[in-house]
Amino acid sequence: MVDVTDVTVSLLMLAGLVAVCEAVRVVSGSELHADISELVSTFQQCCCTHELRLLSEVGGIEPRLALTLTYLAALVHALTFRGATGNPTGTLEHVYRARLTRGCALRRVACQFAAALLARFAVHAMRGLGLSGLHAHHAGLGFQCTSNIHASLPWAALVELACAFAVQTVTSCTRTMEEKYRVHALAATITAVGYTGGGVSGAVFNPALAFSTQFHCSGNSMLDYCLVYWVGPLLGMMASVLLIDKLRPSPSPHLHGDTKKTS
C-alpha cells in the first residue's frame, strides 16, 4: 500500500531540488554558459527520474499517479530548461542541423553525462538521510535496483528507438508552436511513450538519463545497456530527422558555440 508520507517527502524533495536548479539559472541569467545550463538541467532531470522510479517500482504508487507525476515532471523540465536539451541525441541533432559545432556539442554531451553521474550520487546521499520510510528502506538495501529491460534485447532496443523517434518528431514539429502549448505537447508525448514502452524497456530514450538511472542496475551487462539505451535512441533520433528532412525543407542553419566573429 502506498504511504502518503513517502510520496509527500519525495515530492517536497523534488520541488526543493527543482527550485535550487531554477535559482541557479535565474541568478546566473544570460551569464550562464550553455554548458553549465546543460549540466544543471540534466542534473535536475536525472534526479527527478530517479525519485519517480523509486516511487513507482519500490513505493508502489498507482499507475495513474505515476503517469500524472511523469507528465508534471516533463512539463516542469520543458518550462525550466531554457534551451538546454538534457539529452545527447538532442545535442547531436543540433550538430546535424549546423546549430552547434562539434567541439561545442562534445562539451555539452560531456556535461550531460557528468550531471547524470552526479545525480546518481546526489540522490543516494539524499536518500541516505532517511527522511522517509521509503528512503530508509532503499538505503538499507544498498540502493539496489534491477534492470528495466523485460524483453529480448532487439525488442527493447526497438522500443527505445520508437520512443526516441516519437519524442524527436514532436520536438521538431512543434518548434514554431507557441511555447505555452508546445510544453504540453512535449509532456503529453513523453507521458504517452512512457506508458506504452515503460513495461518493455523503461522508455528512457535518453542516453545520459539511462546512464544515470539504468547502467548501475543488476540484470543486464554494460553492453546490453549500451545497445538498448544508447544505440536505440540514437537511431530513433536519426530516423526522425531524416524523415522530417524528406517531408519538409530544413531552415537555414544558425551556428552557435565555437564560431569566430568576422569584422
Automatic annotation (TrEMBL):
Gene3D superfamilies: Glycerol uptake facilitator protein
UniProt topology in membrane: Multi-pass membrane protein
Signal peptide location: 1-23
Record InterPro entries: AQP11/12_channel, Aquaporin-like, Aquaporin_11/12, MIP
GO function terms (MF aspect): channel activity
Residue ranges crossing the lipid bilayer per the database entry: 227-244
Top-level lineage group: Eukaryota
Pfam families attached to this UniProt entry: MIP (PF00230)
Main location: membrane
GO cellular component, one term: membrane
UniProt keywords, alphabetically: Membrane, Signal, Transmembrane, Transmembrane helix
Family statement: Belongs to the MIP/aquaporin (TC 1.A.8) family. AQP11/AQP12 subfamily.
Protein name: Aquaporin
Organism encoding this protein: Gouania willdenowi
Taxonomic placement: Eukaryota, Metazoa, Chordata, Craniata, Vertebrata
